[in-house]
Amino acid sequence: MRFDLITIFPEFFAGPLEHGIVRRAREGGIIRVNVQDLREFTLDRHRTVDDRPFGGGEGMVLKPEPLFEAVESLLGHSVGNAAAKSALDRSTAIVLLSASGKRFTQETARRYAQLDRVVFICGRYEGVDERVAEHLATEEISIGDFVLSGGELPAALVLDAVTRLLPGALGNQASSENESFSLLERAEKSPTGALHKALSHGRTVLDFPHYTRPADYRGWKVPEVLVGGNHAEVAKWRQRMALEKTLRNRPDLYHEDKELV
Question: What is the pTM of this model?
């Protein structure tokens, strides 16, 4: 899978791309990552990528010309114009990172992981010319209800979330299947109980609590069920605790149902 990162701060990605799963995925040929300096697509000697907003107001706005030309250069073809828009390969997504975008979720990550290529447009300043969102990007994504200085950090987060879903990226594929926000389609295989009902209703649950050695630290002990060796009981405990943790920390993940509590 290929990722392209269009940014005015290409050096930003030197750190995130050189550690952990992303680094191993790059070294293993599972992903290719290209960082594109947006300023290479400017024509003036100051390499200007922004301008004042029409209608007045504070801040500067990223211009459409360099963004369109950067994406077209990466794709190898024009995206068209108002009179005739060119069709985009269905296996490619052009993602604008923006506080105004749709919320990025694990399901979004799964959808991207089925593609061959994702091009990230990292916004900056006050925003990006709306024509980029409407006519260039296939999707506008936000990582949360807060405002950041630019789209570089969100792009790195999305890239990481997608990479770990690709076959071979994790040493143990089951790791990604048992994480928080997993859809856990295997709900039908789980024992009866609250978690089974939650999953069969299509709800999302967080990961279960994890413990490691020592079994007793400063008087805080690991739950007995985890050291007892009964795998069936461990599975039931993990399912129950996953639901309890979801209800406690993220009740917004699904509408509360009296039948589930």
Answer: 0.82
- Extended strands (E) in 8-143: 32-37, 50-51, 61-62, 92-103, 117-122, 127-128, 139-142
To which CATH superfamily is domain 178-253 assigned? tRNA(m1g37)methyltransferase, domain 2 (1.10.1270.20)
DSSP string, 236-247: HHHHHHHHHHHH
CATH of 2-163, one of 2.60.40.420, 3.40.1280.10, 3.40.50.970, 1.10.760.10: 3.40.1280.10
Most distant pair of Cα atoms in the chain: their distance: 71
d(CA 161, CA 21) in angstroms, rounded, equals 10
Backbone angles phi, psi at 61, to 5 degrees: -125, 135
**Would the pLDDT of 97 be above 60?**
yes
